[in-house]
Amino acid sequence: MKKITQITLLFLLVYSNVFAQQEKGIIGYDNWLNPWTEFKPNKVDHGTPTQILSGNITRDTKLYKADTYLLLGDVFVTDSTTLTIEPGTVIIGDFETKGSLTISNGSKIIANGTPTDPIVFTSGRSLKKPGDWGGLFILGDAPTNKFGNEDTLNFGLQSASAKHISYGGNNTDSYSGILKYVRIEFAGKRTKQYGYFNGLTLAGVGQQTIIENIMISYCEGNSFNILGGDVNLEKLVSYKSNINDYEFNYGAQCNISNSLAIRSPYASGSEVSRCINTIAYDKKEDIDFSKNQTSVQAENLTLVNISDDLDYDIKIGLVNEAIYIGEDTSFTIDNSVISGFNPAVILDNKIKINSESLEKIGFTRTYFNNCKGNIYIKYKTNNEDLENWYGNRAFNNVYSKGPDSETFIDLKNSKRPDFRLRINRIFAANDDND
What we know:
The protein has helices spanning 2-21, 310-315, 355-358, 384-390, 404-407; strands spanning 51-57, 61-63, 68-77, 82-85, 90-93, 100-103, 108-112, 119-123, 136-139, 151-152, 166-167, 177-185, 190-191, 195-196, 200-203, 210-217, 224-227, 230-239, 246-249, 253-263, 276-278, 295-305, 323-325, 330-334, 337-339, 345-347, 361-364, 367-369, 375-377, 398-400, 408-410, 418-421. It has a 26-stranded parallel sheet that branches. The chain has a two-stranded antiparallel ribbon with strand order 10-11. A two-stranded antiparallel sheet has the order 13-14. The longest helix has 20 residues, at 2-21. It has one domain. Helix content is 9%, strand content 35%. It is mainly beta. Residues 1-20 form the signal peptide. Keywords: Signal. It comes from Psychroserpens ponticola. This is T9SS C-terminal target domain-containing protein.
């Protein structure tokens, strides 16, 4: 009986310790990155396409794992059509025509992969590189902050009708389908006139749409681009994107939880790149300020910059801030980890530092590690007022200079890394004399 009691107490001790240690950053008693993610996608050969997707898909269609599909040019799912993708299916974006897939407003995508059979959008080239193909666009009729609520994508997509690239409306519960256990690799083509595509663009997507367990790796543009809408995001991974990992704009109302951004100073492009870029508009004159402006509520995020020599990379300008918060936006983050940036956060210089502004910008129970500075106003070097505000014990933020090897469980594992906070190990010995 005594041994049973000891074992029970030990289990409770370990359980409570794991819970306490993992409350910051991504959480889970198992590493939820396993087994569906892929950190070396350039080493994977998906074979030759057996089917071609092109033009408009105007009737309900299902893609099967037994085939490999080629996106030839700009492909649109239109006319209230549902595109269903079987778990394990591979879709290759054509390099020559910079293939892309757009789920038009009113249509749906059901891409419901599994942990052992994720759905993969990728490059078909033998030497894969960021920007090999376009990306995935999902359009809905949830609100934006623009006049009239509706807008069109501005990426130069070759659509037969403007309605195929239109998004926005009044339906916060808009349902555009399911995207779960999906990988998007080597997307983000560059166009001369319109700039870079993104890995996944969610434009006017509503609350009923399910976006979970998505990994976007080696994207030439933003990994995730949220334009308006009202959407919940969970267990997302952005890996070594060239621009931003998560960009929010045009009145996006977003809850994002248990998600990861892994930056590399050696993979970023010439533009300033961040884990999170939160803005309300590109042009202020386009925005209706009677509507909800961009608002992001983040919880249990891990934002990490992986560097061979962080001090040197910061010195030569390869490392930027992790989070940028623009004027007229709201942003809160809780129970998260920000590690290895210069600095951790920058606020737009047009934001007035007063109680009204700071009530909309919250940092609580967050672990700032190995950052050259914490929270600053753009162009200002003195951040004493912000340090005093967010350093208040009421916010329960933590500041440290720990190396990655002591901060994360197994960051160096090239095949199956584990970005959860390191847990103190508890060893137990049986006493056979009891």
